[in-house]
């Protein structure tokens, strides 16, 4: 069983049905989709955002394609039901055509100059090979990793996106978690080519995500 990870970029710019509404507001950014399902003629997803959650609620409430939503301000997670969109419909059609399984999370990224999604799919070796060659011309693919699939369930690093893992590993290597600290947000940001404010926010998300699950795992054995 093989997996392939990479970034997909839709050339027409229509990545997510809500992205146009969200991205026109600098106060809100969609970061990661943790779960997504297609239910008849619509999609339902659990996504993580950054920025002003009050503004996010306003944007979702004003968007005609959204049927229902609920935002948890503390965790910056949103449950959203919305109409089909060309990009999402096309993505699920491709997965079905090659009998591939989408392994969440799906991370939104501009690492290749254009806004895209970093995702992982699992399937047979022949399916992985064919989909790489047969993607439609309106989708650009930036392959990153291919290999034998091994589930990461139960492993703490499996809770992080690739982007978060890069920041976390760099922070550890530079001594950010040493006592006393040997690295600053600015030094980590320079190493991963991101803004210090972005690194600060990502480290907070990483710690908020990992620490409770680590404690749960530890106390489960007590």
TrEMBL record:
What superkingdom does the record give? Archaea
- The yes or no answer to whether the keyword NADP is present is no
> Record keywords: Transcription regulation included?
yes
Q: What region holds the HVO-0513-like N-terminal domain?
A: 16-149
Outline the extent of the HTH bat-type domain. 160-211
**A Pfam short name:** HVO_0513_N
Keywords, alphabetical:
Transcription, Transcription regulation
Please name the InterPro entries in this protein's record.
HTH_bacterioopsin, HVO_0513_N, WH-like_DNA-bd_sf
Descriptive protein name: Transcriptional regulator
The species this protein belongs to is: Halonotius terrestris
């Amino acid at each position: 069983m093989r997996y392939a990870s990479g970034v997909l970029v839709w050339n027409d710019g229509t990545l997510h049905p809500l992205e146009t509404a969200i991205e026109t507001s600098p106060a809100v950014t969609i970061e990661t989709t943790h779960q997504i399902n297609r239910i008849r003629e619509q999609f339902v997803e659990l996504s993580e955002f950054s920025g002003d959650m009050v503004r996010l609620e306003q944007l979702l409430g004003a968007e005609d394609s959204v049927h229902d939503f609920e935002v948890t301000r503390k965790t910056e997670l949103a449950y959203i039901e919305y109409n089909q969109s060309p990009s999402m419909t096309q993505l699920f059609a491709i997965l079905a055509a090659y009998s591939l399984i989408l392994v969440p999370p799906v991370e939104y990224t501009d690492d290749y100059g254009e806004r895209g999604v970093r995702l992982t799919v699992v399937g047979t070796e022949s399916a992985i090979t064919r989909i790489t060659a047969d993607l439609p011309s309106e989708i650009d693919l930036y392959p990153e990793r291919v290999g034998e699939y091994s589930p990461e369930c139960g492993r703490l690093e499996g809770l992080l996106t690739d982007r978060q893992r890069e920041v976390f590993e760099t922070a550890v290597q530079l001594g950010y978690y040493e006592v006393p600290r040997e690295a600053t947000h600015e030094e980590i940001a320079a190493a991963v080519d991101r803004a210090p404010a972005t690194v600060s926010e990502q480290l907070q998300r990483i710690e908020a995500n990992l620490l409770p699950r680590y404690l749960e795992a530890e106390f489960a054995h007590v």
